[in-house]
Amino acid sequence: MDQARQVRLLIPPFFLFMSIAWGWLLCGGDLAGLLQATSPQHALLVAAAAGAASIPLGFLIAMVSTAILRMGCWSPTGRTYEVGVSEESLKAIWSAVKAKDHFNKEQRLYATATFDHELFSRGVHEWIMRRWNTFNTSTNCIVALGLSHPFGSVCGISQGWRWTLSSVVLITLFLWNAVTCWRQTMAMVEFQAKRSTEWKVRT
């Protein structure tokens, strides 16, 4: 697994655990007393278990996040949150990848992925990937923070206004970051599709 994907899977569980711990402290939990009462062996065991569960939990959070995004953007014409460019740019991309079939908007994801991975320079591709990974990490963190409240309720943590407000503030920040990175990613794809006059649009 590449480093960028590992980071994308590890950060959301951190916010999930952090949010639950914060909610527990706000409802009167005694962290100092808990640490004093916990043996070093038990603390190491808990830390090891949390570390081992981080990537699987991150993968589960990513699955939930992706499912929400796909359901929110589902369309019978093949529209997807992964490709948000104009039809003009899609036609330029279709021509650039030298697809033999007639232009088909339902294949936008595959045409754009081919356009990115085959034709972009390494620098442009990495620029896009950094923002796309940040978009995915931000959306996954939103889901993680949302899940922390029902998980906290199962653990007996009351839903106080301070915990809820803290989560709302963080979710707002992650949402702003996700929207910004998504727009920048799509704008770069649009720019790359329109920059070459040698790509003849196939209608």
* Mean pLDDT across all amino acids: 82
- What distance separates the N and C termini? 39 Å
Number of strands: 0
What general outline do the C-alpha atoms trace? elongated
Instruction: Give the helix proportion (percent range).
Output: over 70%
Largest sheet: none
What secondary-structure arrangement, pairings included, does this model have?
Layout: H1 3-26, H2 31-37, H3 40-72, H4 87-96, H5 108-119, H6 122-154, H7 161-194
Helix pairs in contact: 1-3, 1-6, 1-7, 3-6, 4-5, 4-7, 6-7
Relevant terms:
mainly alpha, 7 helices, about 0% strand, elongated, disordered C terminus
Q: How is this structure best described in words?
A:
- The chain is mainly α.
- It has 7 helices and no strands.
- Helix 3 crosses helix 6, helix 4 crosses helix 5 (108-119) and helix 4 packs across helix 7 (161-194).
- Residues 199-203 have low confidence and may be disordered.
